[in-house]
Design brief:
Structural class: alpha/beta
Strand content: 5-15%
Strand order of the largest sheet: 2-1-3
Helix content: 40-55%
Shape: elongated
């Protein structure tokens, strides 16, 4: 088994024989990593958190509803004063979106 220093030296200096030996292992590693990533991603439901403010009677609170529904994503809405509540739940979201002027009013946090 070769060390990382040997690997780096051979890659950096273009040792083609060595590269031919490791490329199949590298391809298998990348394929497994991509497969694992896809499986982990497939296991998670698509869920978004939408942050808005009360500015102009919550006019932007529904700004992303149509788009998220078209994607088939579930979503929850949080007024900007509820950010501490959202921060405790971030692990349950794939995406957090701040609407236009999301932090325009009541931004004392």
């Amino acid at each position: 088994m070769r060390s990382c220093a040997d690997l780096w030296y051979n890659v950096r200096h273009g040792n083609n024989d060595y590269m031919r030996q490791i490329i199949p292992y590298f391809v298998v590693f990348v394929a497994l990593a991509l497969s694992a990533g896809r499986m982990a991603h497939a296991a998670l439901p698509e869920r978004a958190a939408v942050v808005y403010s009360e500015w102009s009677n919550h006019v932007f609170a529904n700004e992303y509803d149509k788009h998220l529904k078209q994607l088939g994503w579930a979503f929850d809405k949080y007024e900007n004063v509820r950010l501490p509540e959202l921060s405790g739940k971030l692990g349950g979201y794939n995406l957090v979106i701040a609407t236009s002027v999301a932090n325009y009013t009541k931004n004392e946090m």
